[in-house]
Amino acid sequence: MAVTIDNSPETLAPAQSTLRKMTTRSIAWLQAGPMTLVFALFFLLPLVLVVIVSVWDYNEYEMIPALSFRGYTDTFEGCVANLPELCTILKTYLKTLKLCLLTWALTLMIGFWVAYFLAFHVRSKTWQIVLSLLCTIPFWTSNVIRMIAWIPLLGRNGLVNQGLVGAGVINKPVEWLLFSEFSVVLALVHLFTFFMVVPIFNSMIRIDKRLIEAAYDAGASGWQTLVNIVIPLSKPGIVIGSIFVITIVMGDFVTIGVMGGQQIASAGKIIEARLSALQFPAAAANAVILLGITIIIISALTRIVDVRKEL
Amino acid sequence: MGDKRPRSFYILALFFTAYVLFLYGPMIAIYILSFQGPDGGLTFPMNGVSLTWFGKVFSGGGIVDIGAAFKRSLALGLVVMVITVVLSVAAGMAFRKPFRGASILFYTAIASLIMPSIITSLGIALEFRLIDDFINKHAADYGLGWLAEGHTTAMGLFTSGLGAHLTWTLPFGLLIMFAIFNRFDGRLEEAARDLGATPWQTFRHVVLPIILPSVVGIGLFGFTLSWDELARSSQAIGSVNTLPLELQGLTTTVTKPDIYALGTLTSAVSFVVIFAALSVILVLQARQRRQGSDAGKGMV
Questions:
Q1: Complex ipTM, two decimals?
Q2: Across-strand partners of B49?
């Protein structure tokens, strides 16, 4: 610090500013480099490999680096021949979409009102933080445990059945509560509503409260305020939350596996099954298909919002 | 808006309470059931009260080597936490200046966050499989025969497993950094610079103390997300399993409450970490409020 050099700013300024710009840029690169490297090695390169290997040939125990669409043709086997009957892959995708749609609708409904309550009805900052934390803490705990946790409630001799039998609603325990599509959707909603709450809350908290007061002063009913102000302004959050939930459920195989008693097929489970049979190209082909469908859904969703924004 | 709570407040408060019960109720059920007596089953009513099932978990009686999986997950979680914090803070600083590729890195992080986990996991498994094949077939050609000798797989907890976890934790870290710097007053850094601080001094003595509570939050996300990670690890962890993978395996075979005991223990670790992190954040924030400004305190 003690060193002072007499450098007149007039002569040195341009050179210095170029130099500073260059060092700033290289410093930025040094700072962002490690993260970029991790994503390149463990995300981008693997994705590229998935796409490449999906058009490789394979036999029972290894993949063969030769162009072949077997991964795809095997996947769609019988789809044309058996026509009006749906083939396995289409049935599986329809089921996955159905689970996805149900989960999305439920997480959106629950997530929207939870976020609405937190953003507009909780007035003190401290309470807002405390209640948000209350919603976040389960997110920091294990998903598997949160799935297992339904067993004592929904099982054949679980609390729900005990209660229903005890109350005389049913005379013998119902079986469809656990290891069924019902329990899968329940667990998915249980696990992933959080992903809806956070972005919607984030959008709502940014809404200028004076807008709502203005609507109130202009005589709008609570419902009109909700439909004409709150929902349109929460749309980015709704779309981001929807993207989270849809991508998670489309690729899910853990929740569907555990809560479906390993009996329900899904897009993610096909990939898992192919992998455990060591059929990498077939697994990769299925991953490419899943990725394609997910991208279509996401771009449709983002388009909805952009279109609205333009109007 | 008036001071009186509207009717919708009470309806939504009830709805919110129901949601919180829905969130915590089932978890509390298994915590209670894990303290059953030796004859207990998987459902209510409780069959006596004891620590039998916790003993079973620790002695490893009946179930796989849980102790080892526990240590592996802990070690991996800590490494993931440290890397997530360091890389996220560094990248967060980078994003405050314009640099080429900034938006590509940002969108890559977002893509990594929303990519269906099975695809990421498959990709990493594939990558390491190709590396293994290459080593086994061609290492000798390059005079690296020693590498192929006894080579089974490059996959492992701290290679493919670590990478898989980072693709999940880093996007969260980066988004938190964005949130921090969105409300960061850049004039504080300018002031430090004007007073002659080097860039490192500015970071160390001005920026870091201000963002520290949120950095602890990044660490919290890094550890807990790794500690509980399942889908991305599933295909990419190699020959050994992490705790969540062992737990998942047990769901199909175990019919005794030891799985609940294991669940209770795993959650206990999560809760200890969560509350430790939250307390540190609170203490740091309180300290900032006390010492945040030395205006009016005279010369130091």
A1: 0.88
A2: B36
